[in-house]
User: Fold this.
Amino acid sequence: PLPFRNPVNAILVQWPGRTVLLDAGSGRLMDETCGRLPEAMAAAGVASQDVDAILMTHLHSDHMGGLLDEDGKPAFPNAEVFVSKGEADFWFDEANAAALPERSRYRFPRGRACTAPYGDRLRVFDGADPLPGIEAVPMPGHTPGHTGYMIGTGAAALLVWGDLIHVQELQIPEPDAHFVFDLDARQDVATRRAVLERAAREGFLVTGMHMHLPGFGRVLRDADGRYAFQSALWSRDL
Assistant:
């Protein structure tokens, strides 16, 4: 099999008075090509102590493993961790494991293990936007509570769509193609079609955790009416 090539799986957002992560990468839960979030943040001049909020798109290993350091303690000692109620209700209830293929059942204890050390700084939200200026956008299918986040408004907004797309060359022009780890394939396809249609219609910037560098771009329609992705020009300053 090919090595997993997403070394970070997290997006850092800063504005005056706030430093926010969207997802926290895989930490040491995946292979040696992963777990590079601390190095990436250091290169950007941001310390783990600076992060005051982490918004989780969902509780899969490659997105939550980085919540903990190598000693199993919170890697972000000053951060609150936000998880949607749909996601928490599913992964924190061991009874749901029986309905899943055996290959996915190990995720249940991992979800609790990665979030429990945050104690009362774990925030489960339902409906209301978790932070001022960031809108939670439900995107169920990949997981029951999979959530995207809209930052800003209008054409200048940025939608972080998490794992809505895993293989952009395939799933943007062919949104019915789904990933083996999508827990509800039918719902995942319906969600992807709805989000791509909205993005193409409204023209805002999008990004996700498995997109190619530079990672940001816009959804368009090609000459045949299919969705297409136009990457943003590479820039060190966004």
Summary: The helical segments are 37-43, 61-64, 85-91, 107-115, 168-171, 185-202.
